[in-house]
Design a protein that fits this description.
Elements: H1 11-15, H2 19-35, H3 38-56, H4 60-63, H5 66-97, H6 101-107, H7 112-129, H8 131-141, H9 148-161, H10 163-175, H11 178-195, H12 207-213, H13 217-230, H14 236-265
Amino acid sequence: MTSTAARPTDAPRASTAPALPLYAMHLRMLVIETLRVPIAVIGTMAFPALSLLFFVVPNRAVAEDPVFATQAVLGLAVFAVMVSALFNLGLTVAENREKPWDPYLRSLPLPAMVRIAAQISSTAVFSFLAIVPVLIVGAVATEASVSVIGLVAGLVALAVTSIPFLLLGASIGYAFSSKAAIAVIQVGMFGFAFGGGLFFPPQLFPEWLETLSRFFPSRHARELTLAAVEGTTPELWMLAGAIAWTLGTALLALWLYRRDEGRRYR
């Protein structure tokens, strides 16, 4: 007698579907979902550019000096990526965990890395959109200058050094509720911004703060992006710090994801 019930071997087939099409579909839907709330996108893009317009442009000693102006624009470009990564990804993950739709998605035969990669990629898209207004204000209202090759190299360096911020945002989202995540992100965002030299050049820091800032991912991102733009060789501590933060936040995000999954679905 032949049974029409699904065989045990049928279940795993759904999980072996090609990951790339699933990733592309999730990425597309996440981008569309974000665009449905235009004010969130506009706010993320406007804040760093307004900071440049209000705090750097009026300071003629900085805005009219090509070296200082370029460093200020790069610092706020890193800040734009960091803010978008921490807020967009951190709050999105935290809010999704509180919705009934998220447990349903996790019950589907979909590799967890596909969803995580799509969330990170979607946030990265809007993070780099936030750079555009900063570059426009810097080009129009300051004496900042960079070659085409330097600009491309700087964007590549910024893309690589933004990974710890994305993973840290995901970690915050999996570790805290949405209300708590907002407070943690705000404290971390301004701490990294000021301590990493994104608002004030590290050369102006007292010695103890300059030493401490070398352990911040924002300082690594700033220095490596600046080195890429200027075509200089980065120092070892910059590379070592960026690698350490990338590996550390990746392990942290993975551990928190599995801990959250174990608490809610076991």
